[in-house]
Amino acid sequence: MSAVVDRGVGKTTLTVTPEQMAQAEAVDPEGLQSLVPAELARILSTVVQIVADGGTVTIGAMPEELTTTSAADLLGVSRPTLMKLIREGRIPAHKVGTHTRLGASDVLAFRDRKREQQRAALQDLRDFEESEGLEY
């Protein structure tokens, strides 16, 4: 029995059976690391666990350098807002001729920092609501 792979326009969908999900849950990450590099084993184990839990995984490639438009899309901000962040030095960038480029790892690190700040702010709000006895 094999997984069903549907290659649609711009995306690939992988559908697995309940039996395959049970097999995915039984994958041994340590055993997998003996076959592939540790980082790849970690990624594959995570993907297998998400699929086993019935989730969806999207895998894509990202270049090492991003245009301002693609970086803004990745961050969920407008291009002018991204350019402001670059001018303020909050996210590193460099020029290639007249074009501004950003390192993909820098953009992802900035996104992760922003998400962590948002989570902390939400937790602070929850703590405040709890201390004040507010319920919604």
What's the short story on this structure?
The protein is 54% helix and 15% strand. The chain contains six helices and five strands; from the N terminus they run ββαααβααββα.
Would you kindly provide a written description of the structure presented here, covering whatever features stand out?
The protein has 136 residues and is α+β, with helices and mostly antiparallel strands. The protein folds into 2 domains: 4-52, no CATH class; 65-132, Orthogonal Bundle (Multidrug-efflux Transporter Regulator, Chain: A, Domain 2). Helices cover 54% and strands 15% of the residues. The protein is built from 6 helices and 5 strands. The chain has helices at residues 18-25, 29-33, 38-52, 68-75, 79-87, 104-132, and strands at 4-8, 11-15, 65-67, 94-96, 99-103. Strands 3-5-4 form a 3-stranded antiparallel beta sheet. α1 (18-25) crosses α3 (38-52) and α4 (68-75) crosses α5. It is flat. The termini are far apart.
